[in-house]
Fold each of these.
Amino acid sequence: MKKILMNAVHMSCVGDIAHGLWTHPRDQSERYTDSAYWVELAQALERGRFDNLFLADIIGANDVFEGRPDAALREAVQMPIDDPLLLVPLMAHATRHLGFGVTVNLTYEHPFPLARRFTTLDHLSRGRVAWNIVTGFLDSAARGMGLARQHGHDERYERAEDFMAAAYKLWEGSWEDDAVVRDRAHRVYTEPTRVHAIDHDGPYYRVQAAHLSEPSVQRTPVLFQAGASTRGLDFAARHAECVFVSGNKQQAREIVAKIRQRATAFGRNPQDLRFFLGVVVVVAPTDGLAQEKYAEYRLHASAQAGLAHFSSQTGIDFSRYDLDEPISLVKTDAVQSFLESVTTQSEKRWSVRKLLDQMTLGSRHTPIVGSPQRVADELESWVRDADIDGFNLVRTVVPEGFVDFVDLVVPELQSRGSYKTEYTEGSLRDKLFGAGPRLPARHPAGAYRVGAEPRNLA
Ligand SMILES: Cc1cc2nc3c(=O)[nH]c(=O)nc-3n(C[C@H](O)[C@H](O)[C@H](O)COP(=O)(O)O)c2cc1C
């Protein structure tokens, strides 16, 4: 069996995805403003040979439920929240191998300064940074940025295409590999003829300048993405190296096959992509003890907070629904696929009551609860049956849930040969793909490399 890849998911806030668990007496997520909290977490994950700490992020308040942010604020649903990019240097300094997958919503950024921020992090982490490319789904974010409302769903992806083209040119096409000569004797740090201003004149972004930073180990960070709509899947197939998928085994398998197949249409090798499924795990030495722990966690979870979050994700104010009213599909500019998962893409008829029943740990994930053997069996069956490569382990009680996984599940998987016992040396891209630190030349970004043959990227 292939080696299972593992990301831990957290956010720079108190209540991220498994809502309410911050109220558990052993939970420490209130320490998110303390640098030691992040260093301790990163070191624990590295001890468990995790591939990445994936930092999700959101710009804007979750204010769709009841038309105001009150429920989200009371329950700490992703607000207050700090900037995840700024956590990376702390943790990179205290670790050697762990990757950092950081979410940045490009809608409210410009390629010129953002490309420099990622290069800086790639320098400081010696090539261990990844970017989770998102385009946002909240009107509250748009209002914060001086717009009346967010751009339409598909337009966000059009903007993202243009953004990526400009960013690739800066990362891949501005500085030649040997531009920096550091020649003290001749007083030449950089050879000017080897640095090129890019000329990007796209529909949304214009960049006529050289990249400000010298090249980093990976140049382009490893690219994560979670597009689920038709337009989103296309974006993932073109750009993403690590893709987040959801659904049951059959659905996940179909999405994986579809994206791999679509990737070939963009000239990529389908094996240049890795797929991850979100999971919540409650593990203890025996099944009985795990069930006890799960029952105890449940006392602190908040399905109401989960519902407030799901309102923002879908763009539907569920406070207006009767408990047993069937949920129907309406067009919103939020995450269409999340609404489809409880309407057209589900055999079940969903209602608010059913959503609340499902959110036993404050999110829509069905937890895997049991002994290390049971959890390992379940994870291995997903890799086998859904053709995924690994998992996004969503937080429960932090850091306890992550540490339990490291101490109990990781050794079990290692003893079965389905999990690494040592890291591969090199950059994050080396560790994930084993083919060097740079994006493969056949990735669309390869066309922007200095000296690359012109290619039709349509
Ligand atoms: C595992 C996972 C993590 C995600 N993380 C974020 C995030 O941190 N911030 C964000 O704004 N959107 C996040 N999203 C939403 C995606 O960026 C995207 O909008 C969503 O998957 C739907 O894609 P679609 O717009 O193609 O329907 C995430 C989605 C998934 C499945």
Amino acid sequence: MPANLTPQYYEAEDRYRRAKTTDERIQALEEMLMVIPKHKGTEKLQGDIKKRLAKIREEGKKKKSTAKGYDPFGVEKQGAGQVVLAGYPNSGKSSMVTALTRAKLKVAEYPYTTAIPAMGMMPYKDTWIQLVDTPPLMEDNVPSGLIGTFKEADALLVIIDVSTAECLEQYEGLMKVLQDRDVIDLSKEGELIAPIPFLVVANKIDYREANENLEVMKDLMPDFDPLSVSINGKGLEELKERLYNLLDVIRIYGKSPDRPADMERPFILKRGSTVFDFAGQVHKDFPEQLKNALVWGSSKFDGQPVAREYVLEDGDVVELQL
Ligand SMILES: Nc1nc2c(ncn2[C@@H]2O[C@H](COP(=O)(O)OP(=O)(O)O)[C@@H](O)[C@H]2O)c(=O)[nH]1
Ligand SMILES: [Mg+2]
């Protein structure tokens, strides 16, 4: 008996496949169960969903009870990539995350307002980048657990406060800790080859003294070339773009046969990914079943058949042929 599944069901299923957190998975499965047509033809599928739901709920419970308490320094990833901020007290980390996302974080004139990481989602193009605010990092004050947060990140945003003459000290201090703790690597003949890619910004550029402080730094370090920003708006659009580029990802839009492409929620893949990699992200069984694919965008013509080794580009629409 045919299942006759509805578009709502496929949407929920799609959300399930893309879910990154346990809660998202549970929510999507619950919705699949709610909207699935209830008849003989879907009984087996309903049973499968219920089983999956029970299993995920059970795993979730176990995780909570076996964990040695909640770890505030482990931040679950969401969106196209996770960017973790690093900076001295008062450099503007919390303000920056607040300015770029809808998160409401504590911002204050006194240092050490932020005790544990907190995150916000920054809209960029048709996707989201996760920004993680952190407690202050100094050469002689490294919050325990924070280095672990950096090492899990997809990229770092190193933030220097150029409204103060201490900006040079901040920059050198941050670079030293991050390098000593093997978060970044500056060793390759002065080239910035980083295990975790990072961007340095000179924040509070709206201050009167800021440009002068920055010039002093540039005189001392000719290679020092940070992006100047202010939480009031200066440089923020470029900052978003540079962070996205740092993540080195592409957005790919899925298309099912005989249906228009889903241009709302792109899949996010590492740059250099192939049709085969894309298939794996859509469904774990798809790479095995994949014959070839049709591509719109980077191909010579629309809907061009390509092999599974075809390297995709940002914005491509792909229809998998199984
Ligand atoms: N004028 C100006 N003030 C800023 C800027 N960024 C942060 N601030 C101020 O600097 C102070 C410290 O900011 P906060 O975000 O709490 O710094 P954090 O300790 O690094 O999180 C607050 O009073 C902010 O309003 C900026 O770009 N321009
Ligand atoms: Mg803060």
